[in-house]
Specification:
- This protein has about 375 residues and is of the alpha/beta class.
- It has 2 domains: about 1-30, no CATH class; about 35-380, Rossmann fold.
- The chain contains 12 helices and 11 strands.
- It has helices spanning about 5-15, 25-30, 45-60, 140-155, 160-165, 190-200, 205-220, 240-250, 265-270, 295-300, 320-340, 360-370; strands at about 20, 20-25, 75-80, 85-95, 100-105, 115-120, 170-175, 230-240, 255-260, 310-315, 345-350.
- It has a 9-stranded mixed sheet, with helices on both faces.
- Strand 3 (about 75-80) and strand 4 (about 85-95) form a beta hairpin.
- The longest helix is centred in the last third of the chain and has 17 residues, at about 320-340.
- The protein is globular, with a radius of gyration of 21 Å.
Length: about 375
């Protein structure tokens, strides 16, 4: 007999150990997450020192990362003139271990220009990545059709990267590992996510950490371009791209402003029997091992304070329950308020599903125009 347990509890435990996709004791496990490193809970009362402490812990959880490239070796392989900007297909070294393709959109004019790292979604759709944010060119007809279809499904028929470039922003879009031209040699397969994540863990690393590291390195690369205003670099993403966006803003000072559309919640709000997050496969690309022992999602996002930061979520978004979104917003507002930076944080719930509508894109553009405008000498 198990010591200290009533007979009924012992019997129930013997019936099953897993319910749906969760351990039967998941509520107890969740209750142990007290987030001791959160701002206001941790013993450090100086915000700058707390942020550095929190960043150190996050980076320690993101172990065995690739070395930064000694030379980006930027190469432009194709260009296409568009209305008010040039689209470039480029290759550059993202680390000492790999070289990646990307789209770079450059407005007409002398510059330097403000710039945005555009971060694509997950969508359980791996055949395209950067092409979800920038309309591709010089590609097979099926790739263009795939991208146009995805823009209609998730972005209201508008490529967010092209939309921003047409309004004066340099735009960089890179495939995350496992998407598009950085996909699987044997072809896309949803179930491979689990094996890929497991293999990263076996080698003392994590898939999610590599994606985050690549995103930060992308911003650092963008800052080296002569036509980019280094003090006006932001990041924007939808869905998984939103997670990537607030992670970047939290972990690097290279990012001055961020916008995250349709990805914010609390662990308590997501770890339920019926939420999509507990299915696991897609979540691997957004999980840093061990991090929940220290910080919840809004606590990590709060490390970006006092930067201009935007969060949009939909009231009809089945992936992110509204109660958890509101709790996360409350937590983040308390962080920005503690630093006298209320006006720098925008949080809004839209009457929308998991979708980045044209109206939301316009509001996001206006946010960056307010918070990250071109330097006076570059305004037209």
């Amino acid at each position: 007999m198990l010591s200290g347990l009533p007979c009924a509890a012992q019997t129930d435990t013997l019936h099953y150990g897993v319910k749906k996709n969760m351990p039967a004791f998941f509520e107890v496990l969740k209750s142990r997450l007290t987030y001791p490193l959160a701002w206001g809970t941790d013993t450090e009362t100086d915000f700058t020192r707390w942020r550095e402490k929190a960043r150190t812990v996050v980076m320690e959880c993101m172990q065995n990362l690739p070395p930064a490239p000694a030379d980006y070796r930027l190469e432009t392989v194709a260009t296409e003139q568009r209305n008010g900007y040039e689209a470039r297909k480029i290759w550059f070294n993202l680390s000492e271990w790999y070289r990646v393709p990307a789209y770079l959109l450059v407005p007409e004019g002398e510059g330097p220009f403000p710039a945005i790292v555009m971060l694509h979604d997950h969508g359980a759709h791996f055949t395209i990545g950067k092409e979800k944010m920038v309309r591709p060119f010089g590609v097979p007809a099926e790739v263009l059709a795939d991208a146009d279809d995805w823009a209609n499904r998730c972005y209201d028929g508008q490529y967010a990267g092209d939309y921003f470039a047409a309004h004066g922003y340099v735009v960089l879009a890179v495939d995350a590992l496992f998407w598009g031209e950085r996909g699987r040699q044997e072809g896309p397969d949803y179930d491979v996510q689990q094996a890929l994540a497991s293999n990263f863990l076996q080698m003392g690393a994590s898939w999610s950490a590599f994606i985050t590291c690549d995103d930060i390195r992308s911003a650092e690369f963008l800052a080296t371009l002569p036509f980019v205003e280094r003090q006006r670099i932001g990041c924007l993403g939808f869905s998984m791209g939103a997670y990537r966006s607030w992670m970047m803003a939290a972990l690097t000072d290279c990012i001055q402003a961020s916008a995250s559309v349709c990805w914010m919640n609390t662990t308590d709000g997501l770890m339920t029997l019926d939420n999509n997050q507990n299915k696991g496969g897609s979540a691997y690309s957004m999980l840093i091992p061990g991090l929940r022992r220290y910080l919840d999602y809004p606590h990590v996002a709060g490390m970006a304070c006092p930067k201009p930061t935007l969060f949009f979520n939909g009231t009809r978004d089945k992936l992110f329950p509204v109660a958890g979104v509101e709790q996360a917003y409350t937590t983040m507002r308390s962080i920005w308020q503690s630093q006298g930076a209320n006006e720098q944080l925008v949080t809004q719930l839209w009457d929308e599903k998991h979708f980045f509508s044209k109206a939301m894109q316009q509001a996001t553009l206006e946010f960056f125009n307010r918070k990250m405008p071109p330097a006076p000498s570059t305004q037209h």
